[in-house]
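Second opinion, please. Pick holes in both lines of this record:
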Amino acid sequence: MSVFRPRTWSPPAVVRALTFAGMSVAVGVLGLGALVLLDARADAWHQAEQASSNLTRALEGDIARNIHTYDLSLQGAVAALSQPGLDQATPEVRHMALFDRAGTAEYLGSVAVLDAEGTVVANSTSIVPERLNFADREYFRIHLEQPDAGLFISRPYRSRLRKGEPSIAVSRRLPGEGGRFGGVVAGALRLAYFQDLFSKLDLGLQGSVTLLRTDGTVIARHPFRDTDVGRDISNADTFRRVVAAPSGQFIGTAALDGVERLFTFRRVGDLPLILSVGVSTAEVYAAWWNKVRHLGSILLVLCGATVTLCLLFKRELLRRIEAERALTAAAERLSVMAATDGLTGLANRRQFDTTLNQEWRRASRNRTPISLLLLDADFFKAYNDRYGHQRGDEVLRGVAACIRTALLRPVDIGARYGGEEFAVLLPDTDAAGASTIAERIRCAVTDLEIPHAASPTEWATVSIGVSTAHPRHGQQAGLLVEEADRALYEAKRSGRNRVCVAGHFTGARVEPEPLAPGR
């Protein structure tokens, strides 16, 4: 008779095994550190993208709002000039009618009305304007040549009225008699507005903000260089990428200074302007490289300690992990079992009630509709009496399968409500959508073609009641169930194998007629 003797390990083998385990843990710690650093790198980039996107959106909104505010002054002047008899009014009244909405902000210049020859005939800064001619300006020629130019934003120019201060013009065409060119209403916007706005931003030492026209002309840029204003970069690769879409992000090399940046661009409202915010890729990762140096040093020290601790606690750690896995798996199985109907695999009544209350409160908070279907197998008691309970269980499983097939969203829940009754909860679904799903389930059950001699149709069918509500604070979820039950009762009273939809909650109650036996 042989005797079992446990296998013994020699000391060298034990040393090798433990050494291998210690080295494996050390490598794992280093690998984990590398993953953490890579994740931190991705986070740094994501934060830069998000910050740039938020900043671009805020700047775009501010610029668009100010320009459109200024445009209101131009539209007011155009509307006033179209009024009959304005040319016969006194200069004071005419000035008030033309420029009562003219902008007076710090960076806005005067609003001027130019006749068809380009001569100033009215000015928001004086009742009797200086007779200057601006027929050579781009904003005048554009409206003269293009009647449909709409709101036009010019290239940067040196203002003659403000001692050569860099400005852009915002202008609109004046219609003349018979649709002819009647002149231009134009206002000046100082480029100092953009420079002051951009200079308040902290984009790092190599960050930039650029405002462009859609033809590639630079209007303003930070950091500021006088040679950049008015420069044409339409042939640059970065410009071709920003003009190709209303908004977006990409990595590229700036045409103006050759710095590689993460560019975030956005079209400024419905204006022919593009705003681009650039963050240096090197500066995005600068803080991350500091973290790599510090965390890397710490990881190297921890690896030695990890090897030692691994040798001491390996067995206990494995035991705890195994125990926790077993407990977690058992808890998950129990949780699933507690929430699932054993026959149909759908949610049980308790899980349905919990979900109904949760979704009811959510719909009340979000002011969204919520719908409920109550299904009942027609003549099910008669089916059981004729075919037996096992065949009846097969019918219930078939109905449950039809419900699962009809529900296309994870948020929808099908449940066995009790006996041969089922419930389908449809959050954020109106009455039309709920009716469509109900009809889909009813047809699917009919298509199973389960023989049912006690049914007038000779097939197993279901009746469905549908209710929809827009919950208000203080209402109870039971109202939805009550209305669906009334609709189900009406479906059965009307002949079964049909869908009936309840009305919205009005407080009215109609007592249904008694059902025939065999519901």
